[in-house]
Design a protein that fits this description.
1 helix; single chain; 101 residues; four-stranded antiparallel β-sheet; alpha+beta; 37% helix
């Protein structure tokens, strides 16, 4: 019986890790899309917060917050924030930045 519980625990940990990687890849895609829309260079994407909670649709899921750095002129960098529920982008915070013509 204990080997069954160990198997369930290990399988759950692997599944959670795999799904968190999918969420990170989705955040990277969203950050690239934002950089293309803003016509800036994407520098990096990093997860700052991840937790299990109730999503906007009322179901249980993973809420994540990702920080992405971008540059509009190649010298200065700015940090934006992406808020995801599972793999879906629900909110973005972008700072004021230089716009080059």
């Amino acid at each position: 019986m204990t080997s069954l519980w160990i198997f369930i625990l290990v399988t759950s940990a692997i599944a959670l890790f795999w799904y968190s990687r999918q969420i990170a890849e989705a955040a990277n895609r969203h950050a690239k899309h934002q950089a293309e829309q803003l016509n800036v260079q994407l520098l990096s994407v990093a997860c700052t917060k991840r937790r299990i909670g109730v999503l906007r649709n009322g179901k249980l899921g993973i809420k994540s917050q990702f920080l992405f750095e971008f540059s509009s002129d190649g010298e200065s960098s700015y940090q934006g924030t992406l808020f995801l529920e599972n793999e879906r982008l629900v909110k973005k915070d972008l700072p004021a930045h230089k716009v080059l013509n």
